[in-house]
Write a structure and sequence with these properties.
By secondary structure, the chain is an alpha+beta fold. It has one domain (13-138): Aldehyde oxidase/xanthine dehydrogenase, molybdopterin binding domain (Aldehyde Oxidoreductase, domain 4, 2-Layer Sandwich). It is built from three helices and five strands; from the N terminus they run E-E-H-E-E-E-H-H. Helix 1 (46-65) packs across helix 2 (125-137). The protein starts with 12 loop residues before the first strand and ends with a helix.
Length: 152
């Protein structure tokens, strides 16, 4: 087995799919289904890995629909300085999440063929939600979070 070198691209990847329901009267967005397919090479601990991917997808829902930093542009300061007004997703915001491991051991990534698991679950969720909202409403939202004001 060869040691890892810079001659190879050893990144992990994912493809994520989201279905949303948009209330036409109020412009509220609810995620109704999420599926993610991940390649992280050889998975050493499947339960832990799936939990990491699902947790990342939950973080992505928060990023897309709830979390917002309010910046005072005069002084470049963040003005929401506590968690009382910083929204994060709770159990009722999250549907059943399906994750699929499609990876094969990669001998160029590590001695055992594994790649990183990390926060790969986060990266594709917000764009997937934004695209699902576009397909449901016809409105392209290009800055996060996706709020009812941006849809009405």
């Amino acid at each position: 087995m060869q040691p890892p070198t810079s001659d190879y691209s050893i990144y992990d990847w994912c493809a994520q799919f989201v279905e949303v329901r948009v209330d036409e009267d109020y412009g509220t967005v609810r995620v109704s289904r999420m599926v993610g397919a991940f390649d992280s090479g050889r998975v050493y601990n499947p339960t832990l890995t799936e939990s990491q991917w699902k947790g990342g997808m939950v973080m992505g829902v928060g990023e897309a629909l709830l979390e917002s930093l309010n910046v005072d542009r005069r002084f470049a300061r963040i003005v929401n300085n506590n968690f009382a007004e910083y929204m994060v997703p709770v159990n009722s915001d999250i549907p059943d999440i399906q994750v699929i491991s499609v990876g094969e051991p990669d001998p160029h990534a590590s001695a055992l063929g594994g790649k990183s698991v990390g926060e790969i679950g986060v990266v594709g969720v917000a764009p997937a939600i934004a695209n699902a909202v576009f397909h449901a409403t016809g409105k392209r939202v290009r800055n996060l979070p996706i709020t009812m004001e941006k849809l009405l």
